[in-house]
Amino acid sequence: MANKTTPMNAENQNIEYKESWRDEYLKWICGFANAQGGKLYIGIDDGGNVCGVKDAHRLSEDIPNKIVALLGIVADVNVHTKDGKEYIEIDVAPSNVPISLKGVYHYRSGSTKQELNGIALQQFVLKKLGRTWDDIICEQATINDIDRKAIDYFLRKSVDAQRLPEETHNSSTEDVLKNLHLIDSDGKLKNAAILLFGKCPQDFITGVYFKIGFFGKDDTDLIFQDLVEGNILKMCDTVIKILKAKYLISPIHYEGLQRIEPLEIPEDAFREAIFNSIIHKDYMGVAIQMKVWRDRIELWNYGRLPEELTIAKLHEPHASNARNKNIAFAFYKAGFIEAWGRGISKIVTQFTAAGLKEPKFEDFCGGVRVTIYRNTDLVAETIEKNNGEDVEKEGEVTKKVTVNESEVTKRVVENTEIAQKIAQKNVQKIAQKNAQKIFACIKRNSLITIAEMSKRTRLSVRSVNYYIEQLKQQGLIIRIGPDKGGHWEIIKQNNNN
User: Fold this and answer.
1) Would you call 220 helix, strand, or coil by DSSP?
2) What is the CATH number of the domain that holds 56?
3) CB under 8 Å to 119, separation ≥6 — which residues?
4) Residue 70's domain spans which residues?
5) Nearest-CA neighbor of 359 among 293, 281, 273, 290?
6) Which of 116, 139, 194, 366 could form a disulfide linkage to 121, CB 3.0–4.6 angstroms apart?
7) Secondary structure class of 34 (helix, strand, coil)
8) Average pLDDT over every residue of 199-207
9) Alpha carbons within 13 A on the beta-carbon side of 275
């Protein structure tokens, strides 16, 4: 009985086996060249066993000539022998330029070969040329399509962030676009210029929208929605305004006499997530979508992660790799983002520091989805304070809000009366709850300091002092001795107090 030979390594991203040569296998060589490179073996079966190939030396001369003639690249072709059988190794290096076979572009992905066309082909060609989609000229657009108000907004933000000098406030529109590399020497605008500063980007580019919806029981239970459109520079501000007015909760508390209304989730981290969705979106696809539920917020943008990144790697230190480099640069200059690939870490850190569950990032439906978990106790408490009237009923006030600043202001004002009614119901109960926290701290430890109470209750020092004064005025506590060395004493009250 013949001895069995040890099989070669299994097929993978960089290895393909064929038992005999056919000219159609030039497609696989094309695919390797367009991807990470790889090796095509002739004379080996799918199991990795050497079966041998006839006329190996003749093929080793013919194949390189066909590769050069039809693909325009050079590959190393070698003949090897194993157990007395000859097989051919074709070693293909990755190409720096797109390679086609008779006008068709092939690409190696995993252990399969794909034909590229449409958007996938466009993105592939741009990547090979070292360019991004937002760097392409928007042929129909002119300088008259740029909104000067958006330019002024960008300059204000950039100066405030100390990423542009004070004197740039008066820069011309053309100079701003040139400095951001958004206009060529012939005065033609790039796609990024229209997206960032266009009066109406939707006239030139589809998918420049941000959809927000409030859902009840499931995805089919859409209760109300908003559509944000316009240039992407102001899009995040507009989205946040709408969310504060209609979708999310801003619990009220007082620091001294100052009324504080923070968003229910860390706003800086939330903005970072929204900025990421805007910067990394594939604008040849559908709109950014935000689904708001009572227990969570789902934010999704179309566009897969770069090949070198995975969801797991996003949580580790990594180089910043924006899909739209011109947009990312403008957002950096405006102070919206950092340029160090720390966005995901910043989001996770701030949410966990606020005592909320860590957001979940995942590949989903051709894009990236981040799920942000809400404080369900706070949501339920707010609904209860509103006499069982859920927040969705407020949403009937508006149906569509654009990025136009005056329009947003008008819509927000329409919601103010509703918001104030809810706020008035919230104030007393929240104040009572905070006072109870302070009282409980003193009851547990009569020597506790103001700073320790602030840390335990997550209230500011000013707020702690305010609630202590309230407790003193109600005759519930007194301070015995000086600030240092003294102690708190709870005054005995009847059960009703």
Assistant:
1) coil
2) 3.30.950.30
3) 282, 284, 285
4) 15-128
5) 273
6) 116
7) helix
8) 91
9) 27
- pLDDT tens for residues 58-101? 999 999 999 999 999 999 999 999 999 999 999 999 998 999 99
Number of separate helices (H) and strands (E) present in the chain: 15, 16
Structural domains counted in the chain: 4
Residue 200 Rama label (left phi>0; alpha psi -120 to 50; beta)? beta
Q: Which amino acid is at 8?
A: M
Domain boundary among 85, 112, 128: 128
Residue given tokens 């006329």 in the structure block: 55
Q: What sections of 390-458 are H helices per DSSP?
A: 405-444, 450-457
Please name the helix (run of DSSP H) or strand (run of DSSP E) that holds residue 17, with its range, or none. Answer: strand 15-18
Tell which of 417, 435, 452 closes a domain: 417
Q: In this structure, are 268 and 339 located in the same domain?
A: yes
CATH number at residue 475: 1.10.10.10
Instruction: Quickly count: other Cβ atoms within 10 Å of residue 441's Cβ.
Output: 20
Residue 62 lies inside a defined structural domain of this protein: yes
The answer to whether 16 and 40 have CB atoms below 8 angstroms apart is: yes
Smallest CA-to-CA distance from 247 within 397, 381, 348 is with: 397
Q: Are residues 224 and 286 in the same domain?
A: yes
H/E segment holding residue 332: helix 325-333
Cβ neighbours around 333 below 10 Å, total: 20
208 HSE (CA, 13 A, CB side): 25
Q: Which two tokens stand for residue 100?
A: 């086609």
Say how many C-beta atoms besides its own lie within 10 A of residue 367's C-beta.
21
CA dihedral 116, 118, 123, 129 (to 10 degrees): 70
